[in-house]
Specification:
Elements: H1 14-33, H2 47-60, E1 66-67, E2 69-70, E3 82-83, H3 90-102, H4 106-132, H5 136-148, H6 150-155, H7 162-178, H8 182-198, H9 206-248, H10 256-260, H11 262-269, H12 273-277, H13 286-292, H14 294-303, H15 305-317, H16 321-337, H17 345-362, H18 374-384, H19 386-389, H20 399-422, H21 426-439, E4 447-449, H22 453-460, E5 473-475, E6 490-491, H23 494-502
Parallel strand pairs: 2-5, 4-5, 4-6
Antiparallel strand pairs: 1-3
């Protein structure tokens, strides 16, 4: 299998470093200016955003990685607050650190962390392209194109870990393709460890990295590189694995499997996903499901491929058909520019990432979000930019589809994303007013049962370094009552009850 030619490993000149640094500083300052004053009442403040904000605020106030709210009924924690039930704490840790240093709310700090992810993504893409192309301007163009690609641009405004996780994945790839010595592989593994600590889906790049190493360096050298890579990744992740083993009994304990297979479990039991979330009987683990229901799960996954593709298409074009048509033509132009260059290790690795991403999402296509495709979407952005990367002579018409997409689709989508990120979301504005009113009637230590447990705490309190007026424990509503046995009274306020019906 023929590979793309690698340019010799050379040090960047002072002019090149200054060029990249100036671009990064300008972009970072611009993005900080665009952060809304109260990110917790925008559309980007999702269910996961509220969860991360609660844990980051507790960490900031010395309560550790704990959560005052809970909504998965079948986990049935003995009390609240409960330990952080996520395998990936880096986003929360960084949010708490930024909030402490910046003296701001944890949602605002999380926005800064997402901006950091966007900056790191540009740096990672720049170094990836620079390894194969000696032109700094081309590498900078690719970095800007990937960062401004609509799906990545929207993620950089979202208060979720996807932007940071995607960036660390491509920093890992950049470290891998530049590696020539043993310590380089250790650095690449450390970057991957950070990516995994941000989001578990980072593991989707592992098979592609190992495939590229094998095709590029052969079996013997690739095995040594893989060993160093995994040792460094394990060393970076080991403190958190130890913490998880102490608090939850297993170093790999996580609720991720419950979310990943939520649609499969719900369909098999003939219930909705919402009923699955609020059921009292816990589902079997991933290992049990793979060994006992492998063929049923495989069939369910294959049937989910088509909905996953439609989800991807809708997310890339904001469900607007003219934008999707322009995107398709631009991608086709990129494919035409790659004629004769498909049989190489880089293309094999890229295709493997795309396939693994698609099938990992197909199993939960009905409940997935477009942001789950983020790593593969960066590859699509690079494909669209291929007409600008091929050496001349090239037909002038090959630039037309890409130029049309950039002007008529990418720019309007990015402007729209900025508007949505800064505009207050009326449903959350209303709920915040109701939650604040309800909180005034609560005493310290009271418990609340609500359909929106993760939103209640951050929207009823000011998540700052100042001491909160009360500490509420929130649990989700279940037909059989409260899902936890928390000390203190169980309170369902009228304001909150009303908000459930009006939201």
């Amino acid at each position: 299998m023929v590979s793309l030619p690698l340019m010799p490993a050379v040090s960047f000149t002072r002019r090149q470093r200054m060029l990249v640094a100036a671009s990064v500083i300008f972009y970072g300052l611009l993005r900080v200016v665009l952060i809304p004053a109260d990110p917790s009442i925008t559309e980007n403040f999702s269910h996961d955003s509220a969860y991360n904000s609660i844990v980051a605020d507790n960490l900031l106030h010395g309560k550790g990685l704990t959560n005052d709210a809970h909504w998965l009924i079948f986990l049935n924690p003995p009390k609240l607050p409960m330990p952080f039930h996520n395998a990936n704490p880096l986003y929360v840790l960084l949010s708490a650190a930024v909030a402490g240093a910046w003296h701001c709310s944890t949602p605002y700090a999380a926005c800064i962390v997402s901006i950091l992810g966007s900056i790191l993504l540009g740096i990672g893409i720049h170094f990836c392209v620079r390894r194969f192309c000696p032109n700094d301007w081309i590498a900078l163009l690719c970095a800007a194109g990937v960062v401004l690609f609509p799906s990545n641009w929207k993620e950089s405004f979202a208060i979720v870990p996807d932007a940071l996780a995607t960036a660390l994945c491509y920093c890992t790839v950049a470290a891998v393709v530049w590696s020539t010595r043993s310590w380089h592989w250790l650095a690449a593994g450390a970057a991957f460890g950070l990516a995994w600590l941000t989001r578990s889906t980072a593991t989707l790049i592992l098979p592609a990295v190992f495939l590229w190493l094998f095709l590029k360096h052969g079996l013997r050298r690739s095995l040594v590189a893989m060993m160093l890579f995994l040792v460094a990744a394990l060393a970076v992740a080991s403190p958190w694995l130890y913490h998880t083993a102490i608090t939850r009994g297993s170093p790999f304990a996580s609720d991720a499997g419950y979310y990943w297979l939520q649609n499969f479990y719900a369909a098999r039991n003939g219930i909705t996903v919402d009923q699955y979330w609020r059921s009292v009987a816990p589902p079997p683990g991933i290992g049990y499901t793979l060994t006992r229901s492998f063929f049923q799960l495989a069939d369910f996954t294959i049937r989910g491929v088509r909905p996953a593709v439609w989800l991807l298409a809708a997310g890339l074009a904001d469900s607007y058909k003219p934008w999707f048509a322009l995107l398709s033509l631009a991608a086709l132009a990129g494919v035409l520019c790659l004629r004769g260059r498909w049989r190489n290790s880089e293309m094999a690795a890229a295709c493997l990432i795309a396939v693994l991403t698609l099938f990992s999402i197909s199993v939960r296509a009905a409940g997935a979000e477009p942001r789950y495709f983020s790593v593969a979407n960066c590859l699509l952005a690079l494909l669209i930019l291929q007409p600008f990367l091929v050496r001349r002579p090239r037909p002038i018409w090959i630039l037309a589809p890409v130029s049309a997409y950039l002007v008529l689709a990418l720019v309007p989508q990015d402007i729209r994303a900025i508007q949505h990120a800064r505009r207050p979301f009326q449903a959350l504005v209303t709920y915040k007013a109701m939650a604040t009113e309800a909180a005034e009637n609560l005493s310290r230590g009271d418990s609340v049962i609500t359909d929106w447990p993760y939103w209640f705490i951050p929207l009823s309190l000011r998540l700052t370094r100042e001491e909160a007026s009360f500490s509420a424990r929130c649990a989700a509503i279940t037909p059989r009552g409260c899902c936890c046995r928390s000390p203190g009274s169980i309170t369902i306020t009228r304001a909150l009850q009303g908000s459930l019906h009006r939201s």
